[in-house]
Amino acid sequence: xxxxxxxxxxxxxxxxxxxxxxxxxxxxxxxxxxxxxxxxxxxxxxxxxxxxxxxxxxxxxxxxxxxxxxxxxxxxxxxxxxxxxxxxxxxxxxxxxxxxxxxxxxxxxxxxxxxxxxxxxxxxxxxxxxxxxxxxxxxxxxxxxxxxxxxxxxxxxxxxxxx
Length: 163
Fold this sequence. Notes:
Elements: H1 29-37, E1 42-43, H2 44-54, H3 62-74, E2 78-83, E3 86-91, H4 93-102, H5 114-136, H6 139-162
Antiparallel strand pairs: 1-3, 2-3
Helix pairs in contact: 2-3
């Protein structure tokens, strides 16, 4: 059974809890943006692209970047001006002080999200097989699939406990 976009779940196939696009830790976005602005003035889209370049596999949404920039501006940590129709942000002394207070922390300290994508590829294939089983298998087969998935989850947690 295929949906409108070629999968049983439609356009968002593969986006269920636990499989969302990776995110930075809560509150870290402001520091990541300030670190970028330390190198010179930029507009929001440039900062999004720079974050994507620095963090393989992570691209923040405009919905997380622009409100953070607005909050930083309201707090006096950045200023903005309209240049060629784009809002360009510049870090202020207060912004530099905020980074100093936080201490040294480079972009390399943020997890490399590319590793997660290596795991998500086979997970997507597994999800496809499970979906087909959930839709077309009989009750006994579905129960067996659930048993296998629960066992796999426990084994993954066991691996994580060892590391």
